[in-house]
């Protein structure tokens, strides 16, 4: 939903003193203002956002006084889903109980009050001027600074009108892993303006009994496989070679573009050391120095400013535009050249330390990724027990769209005719080799 917003205007005001908003969010941009939820207009508004410092702000302004909180903690993990709960209850006698922020089940203490001339917590029995009023609710948008960068993936958004719930209503700690996990069907009372959207798929039709449906304000809503119960790999924005050096990352963290005449590298967010995984990468608009492959996370220049993946170190393994296999600066004849619009498939067998590449569904060099320990015509033998992730190198206006299982390569390029996939995990253009699965948390646990 990076260039999209949805909206709904209530026909009547609800409870403006008590409500809860719960949502699961995966960040795909950092260092910019990202309005997650907003109502009202400049001068009298309610908003929940990630700030330019990657903190969370939960605030309201009535034209004269502002009340809100900004977290001390920053939230820069682009590889995982955050569960955010915002509880508002001004009927509470204790001021610190009147507005609360929970992240992944933990209540977060606020810090900054400088943006508000009245402090962090609203007065007792204070009516929120915008939220639960007859002003438009908007998700992923801010109307008075429409050029503000946006970018997040959303799932399971609940709003309860007149009811204050804490995070344990919507999630719980997994007894085995200790991780916070989603409660997909929480027991909640919605109230007049309550709603549930994006619960199972990309519907903005209210999935509670209220019929408080949203409408699309701009852009398009894409139904991704990525969700709080199955987190998929995407491009990690935190590496210096990526956004630190000007690579543009779009499409919910899966499409990368670099315009300048210099090579830059991009790396995935999930790096297993065992298992069998398959992903695809589609090349658009320029193939001058494109290389698709995998990177060993032990590479010393992984976070360097200009290290060349697949060239600087023998820990990286790729398939380049000329149809060569490449590692550590050594190129060897291997397969067919890559053209614009081609899809490179990557099958990494970490159980047998073998790597294979396909081009438009045909494994190159007569490689057989199902051959197991024999590694029939594998492109490379990998380091045993090392952690590998998907990667690419690009330059001069090249765009690469990774499909780690979400079913799309860019906002306009999607899987046209889905191949077979015995694992049932992920959606790919070509057949997934038997025994392989998508690079996701579910795939890690198969």
Q: Would you spell out the secondary-structure blueprint of this structure?
A:
Elements: E1 5-8, E2 18-27, E3 34-41, E4 44-50, E5 56-61, E6 66-70, E7 82-89, E8 99-103, E9 106-107, E10 137-139, E11 152-161, E12 171-173, E13 180-182, E14 195-197, E15 215-218, E16 248-250, E17 255-258, E18 264-267, E19 276-284, E20 291-296, E21 316-320, E22 324-327, E23 330-333, E24 343-349, E25 354-359, E26 362-363, E27 380-381, E28 388-394, E29 398-403, H1 441-444
Antiparallel strand pairs: 1-10, 1-15, 2-7, 2-11, 3-4, 3-10, 4-5, 5-6, 7-8, 8-9, 11-14, 12-13, 16-17, 17-29, 18-28, 19-24, 19-29, 20-21, 20-28, 21-22, 22-23, 24-25, 25-26, 25-27
Report what the structure shows.
By secondary structure, the protein is mainly β. It folds into two domains: 5-218, Jelly Rolls, CATH 2.60.120; 243-444, Jelly Rolls (Sandwich). The protein contains one helix and 29 strands. The protein has one helix at residues 441-444; strands at residues 5-8, 18-27, 34-41, 44-50, 56-61, 66-70, 82-89, 99-103, 106-107, 137-139, 152-161, 171-173, 180-182, 195-197, 215-218, 248-250, 255-258, 264-267, 276-284, 291-296, 316-320, 324-327, 330-333, 343-349, 354-359, 362-363, 380-381, 388-394, 398-403. Strands 16, 17, 19, 24, 25, 26, 27 and 29 form an eight-stranded antiparallel beta sheet that branches. A seven-stranded antiparallel beta sheet has the order 6-5-4-3-10-1-15, with no helix packed on it. The chain has a six-stranded antiparallel beta sheet with strand order 9-8-7-2-11-14, with no helix packed on it. A hairpin with a 2-residue loop joins strand 22 and strand 23.
